[in-house]
Design brief:
Structural class of chain A: alpha/beta
CATH topology of chain A: Spore Coat Polysaccharide Biosynthesis Protein SpsA, Chain A
Oligomer: heterodimer
Number of domains of chain A: 1
Strand content of chain B: over 45%
CATH class of chain A: Alpha Beta
Strand order of the largest sheet of chain B: 3-2-6-7
Helix content of chain B: 10-25%
Number of helices of chain B: 2
Number of strands of chain A: 12
Shape of chain B: elongated
Shape of chain A: globular
Number of domains of chain B: 2
Number of strands of chain B: 11
Largest sheet of chain A: 8 strands, mixed
Distance between the termini of chain B: 6 Å
Number of helices of chain A: 10
CATH architecture of chain A: Alpha-Beta Complex
Order of helices and strands of chain B: EEEEEHEEEEEHE
Largest interface: A-B, 19 and 21 residues
Amino acid sequence: MTVKWVYENVTGFDAFYSKLNIVLLITSLCLWKKYHPRHTTVLYVDKSTYDKFFNLDIIYLWDRVEILNYTDRVNREKLWAGCKPKVISQSKEPMLIIDHDFLIFKNIDELLNDEVIYSYDEDMSQWYINSNDQYNKNLKDPIKFIQDKAANVSFLYLPNVNFARDYGQQTVDRLIEFTAMLGDNLNTGYLTICEQYQLKELLYINKIKHRTLNKNIYSCDKVQFKQEKNNIGIWELEESFLYYKHYGVDKRRILDNRQGYNYSDTISYLYRCINSSKLINIEYLDNKLNNNISNK
Amino acid sequence: MAIRLDGILNTVAGATTGSYIRIEYVKYMPWVGTIEYTPMCFKNELEANMSRIRYFGDELPAATFPIPHMSMSLESGSFTGDLDIEYTMTIPLTGSLQDVNIKHYGTTINSASVDVTDFDDDGNEVTTQELMTWEEFGIVSESIEQKHPIDLSRNGSLLSQCYTHLKETLAEQIPAESILDV
């Protein structure tokens, strides 16, 4: 199984890099390798990120590192996950694509069969544009809004190459169209609708079997899982807390040390996770990060 | 519709026996719970007429003659006294005092303890407890307080209600019989 991460400096500035996000990416990779040592891990980065990671001496952690060189007219600063669907659109084999803030604590090989799997269903809220959006109506092929859930793709397993390529390309095409229509007036509601809602809609329309890691549905409005469950989930909420963690919007809260979140404790926890993989020396890594990354 | 004060009204613009007080700019503000109006004083009806509100397309006046509401006094029969008129008068739209259930909204921090996977110093997997917190906006408490609800049941002309209020306010300072409708 090939497992992919995409990490692109969407601003082009060195200030983009933060210690928390890079440690999360390393943790995501290290835990994946700890529980899935036979998987092939691939990292997609832009040139400046490659140089940064080279200086951090972490390139070797992945089995392969590829440099992104896409020229699609997508406003990446606003549609920051723009390269991920591009990578998906060029799939040549079944693949898993993982966000840098997604951590696994269990071998899941037995789950990886012929069904699409993603993290969890989430309800639609202000994080998404809605069916009244005029710019969506102006798309060549507007999103139809025929159901009311979106697929959180912090973890996405795509066993069918043709479906993966279609989904990835449709997402890229729509991101290009939205960029042309809205320019700098874009917001992430257009990214989430293309990347996450569209996946759920495609699965629904094409009657493709799919599952979610969580049974419980995530409330974007309340920023927590609801009691409501779907009928395609694998794990109960209590199990999911043990088996994986998706930091998502918690990253901002950790950086701000908001009540219930602590930056130092989180970094220590992530270092313990990395240390458990025995892939890199923590003192060495911390020293490299402190010398090369100015943002916490 | 206007008011004239019987007697000699002394003002900074001189004394007059033909005083003319007109209400202009009535503002009905149920969302605030008030009606606001502006009484304007003139030395006589002619000057009041010359100073009337102009609308779009009207010929503009050469001058207007409102009297500043300062240092005014009235001599009416045996009565002599100062007169103070606010530039902006307010009629509260308050209903009778009643008990009201007040909901207090705010953000609460909720927490729950969940089992998560952690690692010891040797890299061995251990299960620990983590306090998961989340914020919720909603009703944090309720209380019963005595409030004057806004009374929206008024009938009739707001302007006439403002004149009635103005006459009642003036009658607190000068004899009511000195306040004449014109």
